[in-house]
Design goal:
Layout (H helix, E strand, L loop, with lengths): L1 H9 L5 H13 L4 H25 L25 H23 L16 E3 L2 E3 L6 H13 L7 H19 L2 E7 L7 E7 L3 H13 L2 E2 L4 H6 L22 E2 L22 E2 L13 H5 L5 E19 L3 E19 L7
Parallel strand pairs: 2-4, 5-6
Antiparallel strand pairs: 1-2, 3-4, 7-9, 8-9
Helix pairs in contact: 3-4, 3-7, 4-5, 4-6, 4-7, 5-6, 6-7
The structure holds 2-acetamido-2-deoxy-beta-D-glucopyranose (NAG) (2 copies).
The site of one 2-acetamido-2-deoxy-beta-D-glucopyranose (NAG) has 7 residues, from α3 and α4.
Length: 346
């Protein structure tokens, strides 16, 4: 519980806010403090699952996701409003919605379950709604309630965060899948019943990563941004958050140079990072990671070899053992080290 508590302190949900939202939440969803705690725990788990997905998505990028939700707080010290900030908000909000929705379908909460509202109705040619559709409405509501309550301000950054939180929740919906089951005489499949199911959270992560790649920059008055002015009474800040771009990630500031160490952003740069080389893996970003992380940042790629012992030449012996030799093998790993020596090319 200690860790979870820390997450909520870090996310600014603690104490004053907690009691405030506990109130409003219990009014329409819950039955008491125990139920509230149930949601809180699941919400915190969901936020952390968002962070885990973020780490996966950015593992071969110059910028890495924060290790835990502790660094998530953009509300206190780190009031950045970059493309990366937008991703963190979207994926956390999506993670919360996803987890709560799953909880619902698993019957973890007394007051919610599958969405059966459309069951029995025709969905399309040859199929009707049936079975257990994931209750995204519920997950969406809880996510909105908890995650959006972190934004207390009314300035542009707050609006941006709220927009991206929402885009995250829309991503969960957008990646849902229709799953069907055949009926009819001897499996003729003349009629199908279908329900909507959450995709793997990885798919939601991939979807949001693509949104990140083409996130929209909102042009703002710099002075207004810096002072974090209240947007009340002004028309400008609400205008850029176009309804037509509701599913897109938006940001306000260009990202700093993530190659270099920046103590004020507590970002350590790419020096010392491991990269992958000569690996026939199809995974996105891996192929060019040494170039992207090291070379293009003015760093060198250093190969470090180490010897490992592995089982090899294994033989099956009748009956029934496997005998192996121990082989020594040299493995190479690659790291970004020190600046390229500029003087050498004389
Ligand atoms: C909600 O789901 C998560 C895993 O997806 C699980 O760890 C947690 O215990 C669930 N919450 C409840 C109240 O069962
Ligand atoms: C660190 O980041 C801040 C904020 O983006 C920027 O103003 C500053 O120039 C950066 N410092 C370095 C050394 O790049």
């Amino acid at each position: 519980m200690g860790d979870l508590f820390m997450i909520w302190v870090a996310m600014g949900i603690c104490c004053a806010t907690l009691s405030a939202s506990a109130w409003s939440v219990s009014n329409f969803l819950m039955t008491g403090p125990q139920a509230y705690l149930t949601y809180t725990t699941s919400v915190a788990l969901g936020a952390q699952s968002g962070i885990e997905e973020c780490k996966f998505q950015f593992v071969w990028e110059r910028w890495n996701c924060p290790e835990n939700a502790l660094q998530l707080s953009t509300h206190n010290r780190l009031r950045s409003a970059t493309r990366e900030t937008s991703f963190i908000h979207a994926i956390s909000s999506a993670g919360v919605m996803y987890t709560i929705t799953k909880n619902c379908s698993m019957g973890d909460f007394e007051n919610c379950g599958c969405d059966e509202s459309k069951n029995g109705k025709t969905g399309g040619p040859g199929w009707i709604w049936g079975g257990c559709s994931d209750n995204v409405e519920f997950g969406e509501r809880i996510s909105k309630l908890f995650v959006d309550s972190l934004e207390k301000g009314k300035d542009t950054r707050a609006l941006m965060n709220l927009h991206n939180n929402r885009a995250g929740r829309l991503a969960v919906r957008a990646t849902m899948k229709r799953t069907c089951k055949c009926h009819g005489i001897s499996g003729s499949c003349s009629v199908q019943t279908c329900w909507l199911q959450l995709a793997d959270f990885r798919e939601t992560g991939d979807y949001l990563k693509a949104k990140y790649d083409r996130a929209l920059k909102i042009e703002m008055d710099k002075r207004q941004l810096r002072t974090g002015n209240s947007a009340e009474g002004r028309r400008a800040p609400t205008e850029p958050f176009l309804p037509s771009a509701e599913a897109e990630l938006v940001f306000l500031e260009e990202s700093p140079d993530y190659c270099v160490h920046n103590s004020s952003l507590s970002f350590r740069g790419t020096e010392g990072r491991e990269c992958l080389q000569k690996r026939p893996g199809p995974a996105r970003g891996e192929q060019r990671s040494c170039r992207h992380l090291c070379t293009e940042c003015g760093l060198q790629v250093e190969e470090r070899r180490s010897e490992v012992t592995r089982s090899c030449h294994c033989k099956f012996q009748w009956c029934c053992t496997v005998k192996c030799d121990q082989c020594r093998q040299v493995v190479s790993k690659y790291f970004c080290t020190g600046p390229q020596a500029k003087g050498r090319a004389q």
